[in-house]
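REVIEWER CHECKLIST
Item 1: Sequence provided? yes
Item 2: Single chain? yes
Item 3: Sequence as submitted:
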Amino acid sequence: MRTNSRQHLDSISGRDPTYLESLIREDYERCHPGETLDDLKRRASFSREDRGLLRDWMAVAAVRAAAECRGKPSPPR
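Item 4: Structure as written out by the authors:
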């Protein structure tokens, strides 16, 4: 399913990146065995594809953070 990750970029900028990363770290590492979120962050500094992948994952984190703020359960993982 394609999503518009740009719609959440404004909400990402105002949040603590460490907190947002904590919301997705386990899921990212489960989806990409043998790789860590930190690996992706390092590669994103020089790879357009990895920059886009990191942006998409951070958009997921922003949605999860917004759901927690509203007191709603997070989307299924």
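Item 5: Key structural point noted by reviewer: The helical segments are 9-13, 17-31, 37-44, 48-70.
Item 6: Recommendation: ____
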